[in-house]
Write a structure and sequence with these properties.
Immunoglobulin-like; 4 domains; elongated
């Protein structure tokens, strides 16, 4: 019997901003219904209640939106919060931006009484009817004014109100100064003109007066540590609430430039800056971290920063060895990941897959899901290619609260040129509690792709790999079997794996392994290796001779497949869980043990028929009749023998009680013995009963 084998290995081991000059908030001040000559506008101890959706304007943070508390019944003034003209602006990354206030934020309020009811009045440096009244956001979502004054309106009076954020003591409404190099907040203003006591409600609409610079560093997954600084920018600006129009409030921008450390928000780095134009020859960002020297990023062409707008900057580090970037990314559900495609270009240029400079890397670029083990884990519309050529990145927006595994492919000219395994899980392999130490090495506490580390749990099995290939095969469907689970593509259609024969040319096998992650490459003869038809080739496909990881290593950043060894030299020497050795590989036979055994027995039975008929039992029965009886006997003995073995040696309910592989081996041994005994008596008393 020539068994066709494929070696599979199980490896263990918001800071939200309104991006379009939108009106994010309406702030309503409700007047007390006091029918007197004078109407109380509000008193010093009035509470302001809000449900304002501001992105932590005080600290560029990423916090969950909160629901406002109920307005106190005794409040003289209420601030309600429904976003007026609420706009969700989509950028090229398809991320929605919105704004909200958080606890501790403070706004300043100015009010001017009109001398002429028809003519708008603007605040002066001092002497305004309401002079820089301070309101502070409380933990319950309400707003409380600091101070001890009460404000009244005469019947028939008309008032104009102006507000700004963040609050500053002794603020001059005609010269509000913002300096991004020292500030930690956004800057916003609001105004309501022509308010009278008959209106009953004051609406203050806050608008963003700054630009939001947002940088994304490709490959900045949660296992990396970057620091980004925006440099050579003008940071200081002066605003006036006395401007005739709200859009004209910025008076000047200081020509002096400085640097601003950007604040990390998810996978983005953000900084609030005055509106300005940046020349094309300016090094706009400095990026450092992740073990490489800091480098400057210069945006191609002029860079425009507009008030109320988001300016996105996508930075791809100049990796010294892009081909050694990881083939697996660990990402939490709901996070956005940026994968640099320079990995693919680096491999095709430097590895033996190269067929000539640039071959196969020209054409339209796209990305899609090859397979996923949870249906609709990722849809193709959650994947976007940003940029072009080797500097492009693949943006992946993962689904919240959904874990699983997926293989994502880069296509160029309609053909897969590289693919990555996305391990979407809350598991952090870098956490000390998620690791094991053995033989002087540190292992993950679970297999690659596993959803937990509970021995015997189906979700602890992890993924399977052909030795030396970067792309996994789905998890087994059952603990005691290696048949794979069903998988789907990025539009929810079930897909399956195929097999293809290997080539005598190693390069062809490498290219095939890249172009088709859904194909299992097999050999029909010794050495039964997908990589080569010659023995002792490719032992270092996952790790080089010096132990370092290669471009085909399937592990995430900071991890690698251990260098193999025998006996005490094995990295898995004496590694056990619940008394069971850690298995680092299994043999997947295309037909499985039982069909393969049946074929082998049938093949052997042909020779057995003639030998036993003529020499063992000297049967004189007609050839055709005895052949039919012999065939019936073999079939019955095989089914009965191995069927009884399955019953007599059942799989234990607790997989850790006895290793499943030893239970299967015992079952096969018992079946072989029963078949042999039954076959002998079947041939003697049935198939060859008429002997000499």
């Amino acid at each position: 019997m020539r068994a066709v084998r494929i070696l599979l290995v199980i490896l263990s081991g918001g800071c939200l901003f309104d991006a379009g000059g939108a009106v994010p908030e309406s702030v309503s001040i409700l007047l007390n219904a006091v029918h007197m000559k004078k109407t109380l506008l509000f008193s010093s101890r009035s509470l302001l209640t809000a449900a304002l959706f501001f992105c932590a304007a005080s600290v560029v943070s990423c916090q969950k939106e909160e629901t406002a508390g109920a307005a106190p019944s005794c409040a003289a003034i209420r601030l309600t919060a429904e976003p007026a003209e609420f706009v969700r602006t989509k950028s090229e990354t398809d991320v929605a931006y919105a704004s909200r206030f958080v606890e501790g934020d403070a706004i300043g309020l100015f009010a001017v009484i009109r001398s002429d009811a028809e003519t708008q009045a603007y605040p002066a440096a001092s002497g305004n009817y309401i002079q820089n009244a301070k309101f502070v956001r409380q933990a319950d979502g309400s707003w409380r004014e600091e101070g001890s004054k009460s404000y009244y309106m005469e019947q028939g009076q008309v008032m104009d109100l102006y507000a700004y954020y963040p609050y500053a003591e002794n603020a001059d409404p005609t010269a509000l100064v913002y300096d991004a190099s020292v500030a930690e907040a956004d800057f916003m203003t609001a105004r309501t003109a022509g308010f009278s006591e008959r209106d009953g409600e004051i609406r203050l609409v806050f608008r963003h007066k700054l630009a939001l610079a947002e940088a994304f560093v490709a490959d900045a997954d949660k296992l990396t540590d970057y620091a980004v600084t925006v440099q050579n920018v003008r940071t200081k600006a002066v605003f006036s609430l006395a401007a005739a129009a709200q859009d004209a409030e910025m008076q000047s921008v200081d020509a002096k430039t400085a640097s601003v450390a950007m604040t990390r928000c998810g996978h983005a780095f953000r900084a609030y800056l005055p509106a300005q134009e940046i020349a094309e020859d300016k090094a706009l960002l400095k990026v450092g971290g992740n073990g490489f020297a800091a480098f400057d990023y210069t945006h191609p062409g002029k860079t425009s920063l507009a008030a109320g707008q988001v300016r996105k900057l996508l930075v791809t580090p100049a990796f010294a060895n892009p081909e050694l970037l990881p083939n697996c990314y660990v990402v939490s559900p709901g996070e956005t990941l940026y994968i640099p495609v320079c990995k693919a270009f680096g491999v095709w240029e430097k590895n033996e897959v190269r067929a000539g400079a640039g071959t196969g890397m020209l054409g339209a670029m796209g990305a899609r899901v090859v397979w996923e083990d949870v249906r609709y884990l990722l849809n193709d519309d959650q994947i976007t290619v940003l940029g072009s050529g080797s500097k492009a990145v693949i943006q992946v927006r993962t689904t919240p609260r959904t874990c699983g595994n997926a293989v994502l492919a880069l296509e160029i000219g309609g053909e897969i040129r590289w693919s990555w395994h996305l391990w979407i899980t809350d598991y952090d392999p870098n956490a000390p509690e998620a690791q094991k130490s053995k033989n002087g090495r540190t292992f993950m506490d679970r297999n690659l792709g596993a959803m937990n580390a509970e021995y015997g749990n189906i979700d602890a099995l992890g993924l399977q790999y052909q030795w030396g290939r970067k792309d996994p095969v789905p998890c087994p469907a059952k603990w005691e079997d290696i048949a794979t689970r069903p998988v789907w593509n990025g539009v929810g259609v079930k897909v399956g794996f195929s097999t293809k024969a290997n080539s005598a040319v190693i390069r062809d096998n490498l290219v095939a392994s890249i172009n088709d992650p859904l194909a299992l490459i097999k050999a029909v003869g010794v050495p039964y290796d997908w990589y080569s038809t010659v023995k002792n080739q490719g032992e270092n496909r996952w790790n080089a001779a010096d132990g370092s990881k290669t471009e085909f290593d399937p592990c995430p950043r900071g991890w690698r497949v251990p260098v193999s060894g025998f006996g005490t030299l094995s990295p898995w020497y004496n590694c056990v869980t619940a008394g069971i050795p850690w298995l680092n590989g299994v043999i997947w036979e295309d037909l499985g043990y039982w069909p393969s055994t049946a074929i082998a027995y049938v093949a052997g039975a042909v020779m057995s028929f003639f030998l036993n008929r003529h020499f063992t039992f000297h049967s004189q029965e007609k050839l055709g009749r005895s052949a039919v009886k012999f065939a019936v006997n073999v079939a019955v003995c095989y089914v009965v023998g191995y069927g009884l073995a399955k019953v007599l040696v059942p799989i234990p309910q607790q997989p850790h009680a006895v290793p499943v592989i030893w239970v299967e081996r015992l079952s096969k041994l018992v079946g072989m013995g029963l078949y042999t005994v039954l076959n002998y008596f079947g041939q003697r008393f049935f198939a060859f009963r008429k002997g000499t």
